[in-house]
Design goal:
single chain, 95 residues, mainly alpha, Helitron helicase-like domain-containing protein
Length: 95
């Protein structure tokens, strides 16, 4: 019996979409070989996958929805963090 996959796992895309990544390589967290060395932001990675000339990624609705969910969750976490940060600053100024 297989154990459930942890959705916080680093190579989640490789595990969830084996048809898109048949070799198990070149997922979101794969180190890129470019000169000069550069890393892609989360948004840049999604954009590069969906606008790639290989249409497998943009045609896979589950893949698109998976990254849409991740993008929304990331925005919510950022918004909540910023809200808490500004609320704490207001309260510290009152004392």
């Amino acid at each position: 019996m297989n154990a459930p996959i942890d959705n916080r796992q680093e190579h989640l895309d490789l595990l969830c979409f084996p048809t898109l990544f048949p070799t198990g390589q070149y997922g979101e967290h794969q180190s890129r070989q470019s000169f000069p060395a550069q890393t892609l932001s989360f948004s840049e990675y999604i954009k590069s996958r969906l606008l790639n000339k290989d249409f497998r990624f943009c045609r896979n609705h589950s893949y698109c929805l998976h990254y849409y969910r991740l993008k929304i969750n990331k925005a919510l976490k950022t918004g909540i963090y910023n809200l808490l940060k500004t609320t704490r600053q207001r309260w510290s100024n009152c004392w």
